[in-house]
Amino acid sequence: MWVGLLIGFIIGAAAEIWGIANPETLIRLAKWEDRLFVICITLGLAIATPVIYGLYALGVGFHWSPKPLYVIGILIGGLLFGAGLALSGYFPGSIWMALGEGRRDAIYAVFGAILGAATWTALFQTSVGQWLVSTLNFGSLVIGGKKISPFVIQPLDGLTRLDLFGIAVVYAVAMFLVAYYVPRYKGGTRSCLRENIEKRMTPIEVEKHKDTAMYLTDGALPYESGSTAQKLNEYYATESNVTRWFMVSVAGIVGLTVVLEMFLHQIFGESTTDSWIAGMLFFPNFKYSQIVFKGIGWEPFSDIGTLMGSFFSAIFLTRRFTAFRNIIPPSWAKRFGYNSAVRFLGSFGGTYLMLLGARMAGGCASGHILSGDLQMALSGLEFTAAVFASMLITARIVYGKR
Questions:
Q1: 206: how many CB neighbours lie within 10 A of its CB?
Q2: Residue ranges covered by each domain of the chain
Q3: Is-above-0.85 flag for pTM?
């Protein structure tokens, strides 16, 4: 179980450098202004999916975790998750990263997340909750196969494990093409990957990178010229910076870390911890709490590790630690001003919707989008589509006016 601390530490530190701990990063994703998350996730899938299915074809055992495909519950959960993401700028896991980075509104996000998880625990007891998870439930399906036990993905009739590997290669090529051709910035022409390979940027992309460095370090600790922090924070705006490949390599680090977790017979998930806390505090005898208590693994440990890794990175690497000063995300401030109470309400309410949706769907950005899509799970792909649709629509409504 304690290995979860190390796994969480690696992911927390890498993602903090990535910028995910800052809610502005995910708000800009929701506004479709900065697609770094999309590029890095698809690149991580392109690297990790053939690895896990290739090793599986060779007989290596893994703890498979594709979520059950119950179409209606996952659809509604994904829509709620996407709306909450656009409002709060947080994933379940990035809340812990934000706490490690010293972000004040993350404190309110924690309470919103626990309350959202508690709401699903109560709803699960009802006929409505049971209907959501049982209607159109086709089991744990992946592209070309089905999970029949925690350690076995059974290929569909006529297919073999080698065929699953072939499907994974085609899937990886598709993910790589997305990572390569989707421009990182609105108004730009190149992804992070193409910028590194071609070693050139448009003037718009240079300005966008500088703007990104500014909001990532808003209210943060000072750093010296030529330091590691400068290289990490200003890596694209600096000519021939030796760290220019780091942000791309993070995608592989995260993806392969999830493969390692599954090899160690655990699964990668972040929102389960909130249900575990809610169950312990409010509903210890409820049916859903009992399911969580029985099935939870190292998720609380990995969440603590995520916080610790983010804190380490924010202090010693990026210097983005804000010491819980009142830092309002720029996109939020442009729309709603600098009123702290309004921002805290958005953070609390957004994470409430997000966790309610995550638990309704049976997973979050970690369990569905990263781990699920890495396994080519149909439930993960449905959840991802619902999240992005809801996120984009909500952001357009919420942040569309000035």
A1: 13
A2: 3-399
A3: yes
